[in-house]
Design a protein that fits this description.
This protein has 323 residues and is mostly helical. The protein contains 11 helices and no strands.
Amino acid sequence: MCSIREIKTFAKKKTGGIVLFLFIIQFITGMVLSLYYIPYFEQAHKSIIDIVTKLNMGWFFRSLHHWGAQLIMAALFIHAFSILLSKSYRKPKDLLWFSGFILLGISIFFGLSGYLLVWNERAFAAVKVATGGAGSLPIIGSFIKCFLRGGIDVTGETLTRFHAFHVSILPIIAIFLVCIHIFFIQYRLVIVPLSFKKRTKQPPFFPYRFYKYLIICLIAFGITVTLATLFPPEIGKGADPLIKRFLLASFFIIKTAFLFASQETVEAFPSAPYDRYIVYETLALFWIAIIGLIIIISMKLKEIERIQGMGIDKKEKDIPLLD
């Protein structure tokens, strides 16, 4: 059983590593999808259907990208609330908290901009409501609304603008902020007090802490792949940018909130039974490989702990740390 302190430590520290790992997965899958996606309102939805139905493993990359985004948001909110509840936003970690808070906002805008790229009715209505809410802000609301939409209403210009945000502008900002955030963690602001340093000897990042993070990332990757395989996202019906009535857009939100699939939905999972069995067998072999790697890494960690418990210094040239 894990103690409450271990759970707090995991929520505060390890979730940040999970978010960074999932961001890397998102960049890789996003680059693959961008090779085949057409950011034009007359062909965007059809290109998604082609990626899912015609491209080899296209449904898997899209599903992996979708579930990676969901897990990133979950891990981000857990990480932010754990920092907030532990009061780690105070000096000297205030700049660290500020950079992380901006990253949270960037991640939310990542999700909103990527959501519209599917260009179905639900995404069209959701972006219409979200940008309309931003337009309710005082003084600058109307400017933000027109800037995000690329005009007065949600049209094909909005799709092009959101695609530019999603694949060009936001990734550059996110990479820059992640580098700053990691820099603050490692070198500047997250500094253990000198009195605590004298009493405890912190283990080095490599290989001890690196192996622990590797185990957590393998588990997170396994969960993401499992969700992407078993629960691929639907495509839905293509959006009609000529529909401008707000009540009709609201109707689509209420409708899709209760109905997760419709007759217009394109099946993203392989339809033939033997294809399903092949996917299930591959998923089982994948988890066997993940568990095997975790066991090997755990054995290495125990060996490191045993050697450190004997008081052996890894800097000694005659005594290797690992076999």
